[in-house]
Every structure is written in C-alpha cells, then in structure tokens.
C-alpha cells in the first residue's frame, strides 16, 4: 500500500511557562504592546473574580468564568480589526473587552437581562451563544456574506474542546473550507467539557487536525502564551482578509475555575492536576517576561490592580443601577403579532407586575 496523503500540525509558542522566550519574539511584541496586553489580561482577571463574588452573593444569575483563558481571549481580540465579526461562545470576555463590549453589559447578560447582548461597542459582533457549536455556523454564514460582497473582513468564532464533537462544528468547517471563506475558527481546548475529559471526548491526537478534513490550514498554539496566540491569529486573519482562505486554530489552555458557578469541578478533577496547570497560567509568564525586560515592577502592579478594581467597581454600580426590563418585553420581542389570548396574558402580566411592585 502506498500513502495517499500526509499531514502535519504546526505548534506555536514564544514564551515558556516560566516566561522565558523559546525563540525571538515577533516584531510587534514591543514594550508598549506587551504592557497593553498584560494590563488587559489583568483587568479581565479582576473582572472575573468580581463576577464570581457577585454570583455567590446572589447578584448574578450564573456566570461562566474565564480564569486561565485570558491569553487566548485577549490575544484573539487584539488580532482582530473593527470590521471583522466575532461570534463568541459564552466566556470570551477578554476578546470582547478588546472590541469595546462594556463590563456592565457582560454583568447584565449573566444577571438574566438579554439587553446585555445589545453591545454598545461592536455593532457587527454576535451575542453570546450558549447552544454549543451554533456560533460556528453563524461565523461561516457571516464569512460567506463577506466573501460574496467582496469585503475585506473576516469572521472569528470560538468553541470549546467538547464543542468540537458537535455536528454544527463540522458543518461550519466544511463550508468554510469548501468555499474558502474568510473564516478563522478557534477551539479553546481547556481539557474539560464540564465533567467530560478530553480523553473521553475524542480519539484525535490534536483537535487542530479536525480542520484538515475540511481542507484548511490548521495550527496548534500554546493558549497560555499571548504572544503566540496573537501572532497566529494575526497571520490567520490577514490571510483570510486577503481572500486566501480559512484557518482552524487550537489553543491549548486549562479551565482553572469551575465550568460555571453552577458546577463544582472538585467532583471530577484532582487538586494535583489543577495545581500543576495553575503554574502554567498566562499572567505569570507575561509578567515574568516584562519584569525580566525591566518594563514592570511590583509598584506598577499595585497601581494597576487598584485601577482595575476601580473600573470593575464602577461597572458593577452601573449594572446595578439599570432598571429591570418590563414584563411586556417577553411578549413584545418574541412575536411579530400577538394572538388574542397572548394579548390578554400580556395585560395580566403587566397588571400583576404593577401590583407586586
Ligand atoms: C447543543 C448543546 N448541548 C448541550 C449543552 C449543555 N452544555 C453547556 S456547556 C457544555 C460543555 C461545553 O464544553 P466545551 O465545549 O469543552 O467548552 P468549555 O465550556 O469547557 O469552554 C454543555 C454540554 C448546550 N449548551 N448546548
């Protein structure tokens, strides 16, 4: 038997877990840029910690933490341009803050108010997508529209490792590959899909290789190394906007918090595993690198944490001061026209809401 085809999956990393460069950093990774990325990752972490505290004290419905994913998310956002479209799942706040989504909007959404998805910043981005994998189809569809209209824009979407087992995921990749769409699909491989470990999810050696079957360039990246994430994303996006086809990117990272605040990961993950992964988390290594360069010190760190805390606290005040939507919204935004029984129910709901204050 001869070989019909062979494939390789490249792996990209610039900073090792201790913040030491494994090769020369790309030109764009200068002091100004790396400090900007570090500050944003820190802001995301402070926000995440506060959001969990809000949920624990009954001020948010539930919340999906992004602890440990800061480099993956901020790196994605940093590589995108305004004209691109982002189709997120439900925990990519770092990418969204980079694109102008407000912290108070994220809080509003997890507080159970759909108006949080009406972003004041990016008007072309999609709302959070909790049904796993459907966002991949939204991105493929958007990318198809960009190509059809001859626009130099790309659609970016994110899915978890578990999500790559879904049919929608494969269908979107197939369409993006077959039609050579300006599409960049990311899988943030955090090793767990709630309680299902990667080893039970797939027999694939890498998730990146799932894109090979769709005929697209595939790459695996150290998702805790923001330099690698941003660089790979920048290249993939440039290629997409130039009409040179889609890319599928696997980012290796780890979910350091529970899946959401409704879950207790201690029931299925060992403390040893989590502690080993904590040592590789993204903020430690970038802080070490910028400190080694003489660009960062403890005093700057203290000032930054104070600034982030203030900004997050202000967002919480803003979130808490937004008046709850009227009960009529659930009728007005679901139906073009109300049938008689629904109109009646709408009136009853309004009266009841008034009566209960
Ligand atoms: C279509 C669909 N099936 C099941 C669920 C329930 N569900 C919510 S999150 C989740 C696991 C997702 O894991 P993964 O894709 O690895 O992403 P992660 O949350 O770990 O980042 C599941 C099964 C859902 N939201 N949508």
UniProtKB/TrEMBL annotation:
Domain named Dehydrogenase E1 component is located at 38-321
Reactions the enzyme catalyzes: N(6)-[(R)-lipoyl]-L-lysyl-[protein] + pyruvate + H(+) = N(6)-[(R)-S(8)-acetyldihydrolipoyl]-L-lysyl-[protein] + CO2
The protein's name in its UniProt record: Pyruvate dehydrogenase E1 component subunit alpha
Q: Which organism is it from?
A: Natronospira bacteriovora
Q: Which UniProt keywords apply?
A: Oxidoreductase, Pyruvate, Thiamine pyrophosphate
- Cofactor requirements of the protein: thiamine diphosphate
Which InterPro entries does this UniProt record tie to the protein?
Alpha-ketoacid_DH_E1_comp, DH_E1, PdhA/BkdA, THDP-binding
The family database entries (PANTHER family) matched by this protein are listed as: 2-OXOISOVALERATE DEHYDROGENASE SUBUNIT ALPHA, MITOCHONDRIAL
Q: Does the keyword Oxidoreductase apply?
A: yes
Stated role: The pyruvate dehydrogenase complex catalyzes the overall conversion of pyruvate to acetyl-CoA and CO(2). It contains multiple copies of three enzymatic components: pyruvate dehydrogenase (E1), dihydrolipoamide acetyltransferase (E2) and lipoamide dehydrogenase (E3).
Q: How does it assemble?
A: Heterodimer of an alpha and a beta chain.
Superkingdom in the source lineage = Bacteria
